Amino acid sequence: MKWYKEVFLKCSDFFSTHLIRNKLSYQEELECRSKEKNRIVPTIMMHGTNGTRRSLGSMIKRLTKAKKAKKVMDIEVSKTGDITIDGELDYYNNGPAPLIQIIFKESNPTEWQQGMWLNDVLTKLQVEYGVVEVDFVGHSMGGITGLRYIVDHAHDFSAIQIRKLVCIGSPFNSEVVHESGITKYDCDENGPNHFHETYRYLKSYSERLPNSLRILNIYGDLKNGSKSDGVVSTSSARALKHIIEGKVNYYIEREVRGWRAQHSLLHENRQVDDLVAYFLWRK
């Protein structure tokens, strides 16, 4: 009977160990889930054509001073596409929202090229820093690039996903402006009268947009009769709603008026700061 006793004891030890391991695994899983729930989503800040570090730099400084956000990382993309990263991410910091500023050293890349470089940057953030999703703020062409990334990669669940998109003065249907306030690219209730290639591309692939995407579209009107911010017409900026119509559940527009609504002053406007901060972080 001795061997029965030994077998019984070994089996008891095995099941006890197995139960303890299962219990620990379950506790670890709960802790991991709790930690992931509190994981902070970083916000990408991206300039437009001919932009520099200063383009969104002042906005970042104001958001930092107001303790609503804080820049934690600089990413520079050289003219040949080489990526340099300075800074670190702390996903579980309960402080201000972390901002990542992207600066392209090529001042006027094609829309396609800028989109490819953004994909390279986000892939690097995913592989080297474990980023799985981001919020995105883009001024002018930066907003176009953000939306283009989404339509190109939203169907790829292995890629970083953009959760919230903020477009500031983005030309979704040309940069044509006239002092009369009328251009051939103007929209009516059914959409643009003429399609710019940017609009055509984004509209063609809009079926790929996830309905969970949340979008804030900010545009300027100088109120000088041009119906524009001096570079982008209000109609071109608002053409976005015709691109995403029926595809995205949450979309809002906000118009900024007066001389501070000039294209290059939109990211220097405190009203814009407040709109961005509330939309992204409810601050």
Number of helices: 8
Q: Extract low-pLDDT stretches.
A: 26-37
Q: Quaternary state, please?
A: single chain
Largest pleated sheet: 8 strands, mixed
Topology, number of strands: 10
**Spatial gap, N to C terminus:** 73 Å
Sequence of secondary-structure elements: HEHEEEHEHEEEHEHHEH
Secondary structure category = alpha/beta
Shape descriptor: globular
> Whole-number average pLDDT?
88
Query: Which strand order does the major sheet show?
Result: 3-2-4-1-5-6-9-10
Helix content range of the residues, please? 25-40%
Q: Beta-strand level of the residues, as a percent range?
A: 15-25%
Rg over alpha carbons: 24 Å
Structural commentary:
The chain is an alpha/beta fold. 39% of the residues lie in helices and 22% in strands. Strands 3-2-4-1-5-6-9-10 form an eight-stranded mixed β-sheet, sandwiched between helices. Strands 7-8 form a two-stranded antiparallel ribbon. Helix 4 links the parallel strand 5 (133-139) and strand 6. The longest helix has 36 residues, at 2-37.
TL;DR of this structure?
The chain has about 280 residues and is of the alpha/beta class. It has eight helices and ten strands.
